[in-house]
Every structure is written in C-alpha cells, then in structure tokens.
Write a structure and sequence with these properties.
This protein is α/β, with parallel strands linked by helices. 57% of the residues lie in helices and 7% in strands. It folds into 3 domains: 58 residues, no CATH class; 182 residues, P-loop containing nucleotide triphosphate hydrolases (Rossmann fold), CATH 3.40.50.300; 104 residues. α1 runs antiparallel to α2 and α13 packs across α14. The structure holds adenosine-5'-triphosphate (ATP) and magnesium ion (MG).
Amino acid sequence: MATPPESHAEWIALVREGCAGNAPAFQLRLTRLIARLRREKSPLAATLSKALSEASESRLTLARDAAAQQATLSPVDADSNLPLTTTQFPAHVDLQPVWAPEIESGLNGLIQEWLHTNKLVAAGLEPSRTVLLSGPPGVGKTLAATFLAEQLHLPLVTLNLAAAVNSLLGKTGNNLVKVLSHARAQPCVLLLDEFDAFAKRRDDGQDVGELKRVVNVLLQAIDEWPSTSLLVAATNHEELLDRAVFRRFDLWLRFPESTKSQIETLLLRLGCDQGLATQITPSLVGLPLSDTPRLINRARRQVALHGVSFEEAALRLLAPESLKDDEVKRYLQIKRMQADGKSMRAIGKELHINASTVSRLLNRKG
Ligand SMILES: Nc1ncnc2c1ncn2[C@@H]1O[C@H](COP(=O)(O)OP(=O)(O)OP(=O)(O)O)[C@@H](O)[C@H]1O
Ligand SMILES: [Mg+2]
C-alpha cells in the first residue's frame, strides 16, 4: 500500500528531531508514527515499538545518572554563599512507610504514572508534575517525598529553607528562581518543604511586596513546571497558603492524623511483638507518627544501658515518670479503654476505682 505523501512530512520531522537531539519530541512523534503503522497493519510497528521502549529505558538510566551528578552542584545564596539545595541520590527510606489508605493510593497512582510515562505520552498525556502534601506534623510528608524519589529512582533535591530565606529582603525571590531553574534542568524530585514559608497569602500583613513577588514566582513555576521533574511541596499550615496555590497543583494529598491501625502496623514493622503493640498503641494515638520510632529507639537504648526488658522500657517511657511501677500498667490500661471511646466513669467502674483516680492517673505529668 502506497504511503500518502503527508505522512512523509512526519518521517522527515522525525529525522530532524533525532538529529537535533530533541529526545522527548522524537519519542512522541515516533510513538504516533508507530500507532499509525499499527493501524495500517504494518509488521514494522511491533519491531519499532520494541526498539523504542528498549532505547528509552537505557536513555532513562543514562539521563538519571547524569542528572544525579548535575543535581549535586547546588546553586548558592549570593550573600552568604550557602548552598540553596541538598541532594540525595539514591534517595533511600529505611523502613517501609505506613500510609493512610487514601495517601497510599495517591502515592501509588503517582508512581504508576511516572513509571509508565510512555503509555501516557502515547495517548498524548503527561504524568502529574506537581503535588502538594499537607497535614499535621510528623505524619510522613517529608518521608513521602523521599519515598517518591526512591521509587522513581530520581535524585531528591531539597530546598535549603534557611539559606534561601535568610538573605536580605528582596533576595528570597531570586534564590527561589535559582533553585527552580536548577531543578528543572535535570530530572529530579524537587522538595519545597515548609512550603507555607513561601506561599503565604499575598494579603498577609508583613513584607507585602516581597511576599507577592515570591508567590508570583511560585505560581508561575508551578504552571510551567516540566514533566521531566516532579515538584513536591509540603506544609503543615495549609490554612496559611495563598488560595491561588491549591488549584495549581496537579495533585493534592491531605495527610490525616495518624490512626490506631497505622501506629500498630508501624510498631510491628519496628520489631515490636503483637502483644506489646496492642498494649501501647492507644497511648500513641493522637501523637505524631514520628513519636513511634522515637519511643522504640529510646526503649532500645534503655535496654542496652540498664539491661531492662524491652517491654518494660517501652511501657515505662509511655507513662508519666511520677507514676509508681504498679501504676504504670494501670495507666496504659486506662489509655487503651479511653482510646476505645469509654468515659472516665465507665473506666472507673470497670477497674473498680473512682473516676477521680482515673483522671489523676491520666493527668499526672512526668
Ligand atoms: N507514614 C509513616 N510511616 C512510617 N514512619 C513515619 C510515617 N510518618 C512519619 N514517620 C516517622 O516519622 C519521621 C518524621 O516524619 P516526617 O518528617 O516525614 O513528618 P512530616 O509530616 O514531614 O512532619 P513535619 O510537618 O513536622 O515536617 C520519619 O522519618 C519516620 O521515622
Ligand atoms: Mg516535614
């Protein structure tokens, strides 16, 4: 079957893009041409498709290595000469994180988009480029950025907030521009942690002029962010953010407070046995998830230093210091009942102590 003349133009454009080294355009055009060959039932379609996916895989590996090297060369603050970013490559998460279900599906969806960019490109789409993580302290927002970089095998470039804002008024915007263009220049995950420091509402009383400028730089950067890097912004003060910021992100993941089941799973991953995990989980509910590994590490130190059992050390650390040994177990028992939604009166009745003793045990500070 004769090829219609207009399709020649596509092949010629492909050759031009290839020779000019424009890999993304080349790849996109070739994918379209393969789709056409497939419709025309040409046997070349399967061969080209296989060659393209093999070549893009090795190109991606090369690009990632080069990017990792490039990413470590941080831009610096002009006044203090401090580096404006730090780079981790390979990014690594020690312990498998425990996400709330909605966060897990959001993160996994994002990872799938990035791992199968070829399929998206073939359909004329691109992966989510920008993601906002918000929620209370210590629930894993910063951890999520590291996790994403690890899963995507990309360098994690983190904005060094102290260096970026610790400069003379008017320079913060410049620093931000430098960091953004540094991160756009090579594939990476850029983490803008404590994002509220930059993206405050433009009507916020202080430094109005500078703040407006910084927010505008950010809004423009988010809009124009390339699909070769992932921009991750994290904040635990979403109420301070400029309204215009939210709708600009491709994805917004709102981390909930830690739950009982998250804490229990984390305790098990940290090496606690089920019995101890069930016993101490209620005392950790409502606290940041980051308190859980901290408690376990402190208990391990006590075991090493004083030769007490791990269980005893953990229980002791959770209860107020002023409680006597025989009160510690009771304290944890009350916490567990409280977490099950029982009232002070109901707890007192069940344990055969009066309600004021219950609240005394709970409220004694260490
Ligand atoms: N979902 C989680 N799964 C496992 N560990 C977690 C999780 N969230 C927090 N942690 C533990 O707490 C530590 C601190 O978490 P992280 O710094 O990511 O919290 P954050 O939400 O960014 O807090 P902040 O708002 O204070 O910056 C982690 O390094 C990890 O040890
Ligand atoms: Mg954080």
